[in-house]
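Narrative of accomplishments. A recurring question from our advisory board has been how the design workflow behaves on a single, concrete structure rather than in aggregate. To address it, we present the structure tokens for one chain from the evaluation set, followed by the sequence designed for it. No filtering or post-editing was applied between the two.
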């Protein structure tokens, strides 16, 4: 499987993207152990031709200029993966000057805070071209634990020896970083490899490249969720309170409770099985109803509501007060604040790459499934 990261900032002759230096990675790329993933990386200029730090990030390329960036590779799969090969791929380079380009452009890749470079040299030794015996990338061996990540710092430099005759100044290209990953099978007993998928269910509305695909396969295999008659899973639909009740009940091994009166007056249109699961999670103290003995089964559940349900379901307490750094933290309701903190502290939930939590946004089915996978993997 191949992870494709597009650096579409105009490798040569086109201004880069002007951004202030971030405290963390410029981009986070989520992988799930299978399929193809892509995102645009950020390159920031660092040195001018004399080796003096520049005060601008949108410099056009010239001899001696270096541009750098940081990417986080987040393993969202529920098993360990290994990066076995890294490579660069470029397009729109004339065949007659490809060799010069490969020799004059330099690339350095290393883990953040690791002085040893995974690669440091001309593009020649790390380029990839389909069917080429020369450009095959570079073999490496980097393991990423399930639900873990690795931050990589990369630097692209135009060699200081480039002259006008090299025709390097007028080039315009897209540079892609390719990372070959594979699943590391779980050990027969113990270990942290996580579940290995041996049975593949046909899902009509979720391609294998979807970030939650392996998680859904795991939940299908464990009978925690079921496919709909048309083989759909509806990953991007907002999940309802009734659906979360069934999901949590099955994940916790709770059996449906059959009672003449459920304690709620609005479950008349719900199947007996779903009603039984709603009663089970309600009697377990996981779900609370609304005033007037209403459960509102078809209401979509917000992220802050789900946080409350999760900490009750998995008995996670806030052991120490934490400060939420999300830009929309003031939007979290007072009644949900401690439970949101507990859900984050115990890694049941997290924020988004833009540093928001989106407490009142509705949770998608795929997001809810991934949380259940995470709890089952622990």
């Amino acid at each position: 499987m191949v992870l494709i990261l597009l650096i579409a900032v105009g490798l040569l002759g086109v201004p880069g993207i002007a951004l202030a230096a971030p405290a963390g990675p410029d981009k986070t790329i989520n992988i799930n152990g299978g399929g193809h993933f892509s995102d645009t990386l950020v390159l920031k200029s660092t040195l001018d031709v004399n080796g003096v730090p520049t005060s601008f990030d949108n410099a056009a390329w010239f001899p001696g200029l270096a541009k750098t960036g940081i990417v986080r590779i987040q393993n969202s799969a529920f098993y360990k993966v290994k990066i076995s090969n890294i490579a660069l791929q470029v397009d729109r380079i004339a065949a007659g000057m490809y060799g010069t380009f490969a020799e004059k452009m330099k690339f350095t890749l290393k883990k953040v805070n690791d002085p040893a470079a995974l690669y440091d040299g001309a593009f020649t030794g790390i380029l990839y071209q389909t069917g080429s015996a020369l450009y095959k990338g570079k073999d490496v061996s980097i393991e990423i634990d399930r639900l873990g990540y690795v931050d990589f710092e990369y630097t692209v430099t135009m060699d200081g020896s480039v002259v006008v005759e090299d025709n390097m100044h007028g080039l315009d290209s897209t540079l892609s970083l390719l990372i070959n990953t594979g699943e590391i099978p779980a050990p027969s007993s113990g270990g942290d490899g996580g579940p290995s998928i041996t049975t593949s269910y046909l899902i009509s509305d979720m391609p294998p490249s979807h970030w939650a695909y392996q998680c859904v396969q795991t939940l299908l295999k464990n009978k925690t969720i079921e496919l709909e008659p048309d083989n759909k899973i509806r990953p991007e639909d907002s999940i309802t309170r009734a659906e979360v009740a069934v999901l949590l009940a099955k994940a916790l091994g709770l059996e449906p409770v059959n009672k003449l009166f459920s304690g709620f007056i609005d479950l008349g249109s719900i199947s007996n099985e779903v009603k039984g699961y709603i009663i089970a999670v309600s009697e377990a103290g996981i779900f609370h109803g609304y005033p007037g003995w209403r459960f509102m089964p078809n209401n979509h559940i917000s992220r802050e509501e789900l946080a409350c349900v999760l900490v009750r379901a998995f008995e996670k307490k806030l052991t120490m007060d934490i400060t939420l750094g999300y830009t929309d933290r003031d939007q979290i309701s007072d009644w949900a604040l401690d439970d949101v903190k507990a859900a984050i502290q115990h890694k049941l939930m997290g924020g988004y790459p833009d540093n928001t939590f989106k407490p009142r946004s509705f949770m998608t089915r795929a997001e809810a499934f991934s949380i259940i996978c995470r709890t089952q993997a622990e």
